[in-house]
Transposase Tc1-like domain-containing protein (Aphanomyces astaci), 396 residues
Amino acid sequence: MTQATRELSSTKRDEFVKGGRLTHGAFAKTAEALDVSARAVSYTWRKFRNDGTTKSSKTGNVGRRLRYTSQAIQQRVGAVPIDQRSTMRDISVATGIALGTLSRHLKKGTFRRRSTRIKPLLSDANKLERVQFCRSRVSPAMPAPAKPKWFNADKDRRTVYLLPDEAPQRRSWKSKRFIPKVMFLAAVARPRFDEGRGVLFHGKVGMWPFTSLVPAVRSSRNRPAGTLVTTLVNVNAQVYRDYVINKVVPAIKASFPSTNKRVILQQDNATPHRSITDAELVSVSTDGWTFVVRRQPPNSPDLNVLDLGFFASIQSLQLKKVSRTVDEVIQYTLAAFDELSYEKLESVFLTFQAVMRLVLEHAGDNNFALPHLKKAALRRAGLLMSNVSCPVSLLL
């Protein structure tokens, strides 16, 4: 009998022990069927009768002894300052433990890998504004966050998965400064059922590029002079006011449910955005609609639904298409905005509510990780909450 068949696997041990009883001639038949000795079969049966298990007692008691236990690894790694643990090689040099050993314990869960991002530094006044902002979200008015963002045709680093005989596509630009990019203004609201129209309001109010069509001054190999060319527009206070008054507000009136016509335009504190005031919105507050503007707290991108995840979702879809021109960036970005489902926007609003609760729990600070609510799994199970609960004590 070879070395490989001297020990029975757990599966083979269970093959001849059925319900705690053996048939006549089971030892010989089992030994022949499994190509093992009758002694191995007899030993396995006695062990089952005595211990109630067929598991080998050698498991964990044979082989080379571990040089480092999990506790020893944790003690050595914990003794290294956190700022000196940025790479596995740094940890290996600082602790004297081999890279392979550290990799196995990382996979085992002895220690873990986490990435961090720089967060805005908040003053006491900023924290107070954040708390007041979150408490004001209890209002029945419908908030409509609106914010500009740059969308690039390409990004510096892309990750792809290739077959062994494949090579990644070559990507090249004359300079990173020449990669086409376009600034868009997007406005969204929380999806809800429109009782008046009897349809679902998907929450995507609209998305508009800050561009204009200008005749080409001179001819080139791409087009003759006089051809209309898409040109980026410098976003100043006048341009931003024009977009909000003539694009965002009409889109809200056309798409919002009409059961509640009080709309809060949420904006950040960029200089052009200050041109939109409640007085500016009086002229468009007609037909029963009331528009007011509220600014999110300074240094608080986590209190804007668009920055919190919706822009990232759009860009992940937009970058799946290769763009070489400004027109293609506009085409693919607007297509991604239309393609994105209302469920994604609903999920971001739930995350927004969870973030506001964390802001209240931390007295306005931002020293917390973004919450993971397992929304996709809950939605598949039909258990997704409609709102994130918040204790009344945090609102007082």
Notes: The two ends are 78 Å apart (CA to CA). Residues 124-156+178-395 form a domain with the Nucleotidyltransferase; domain 5 fold (CATH 3.30.420.10).
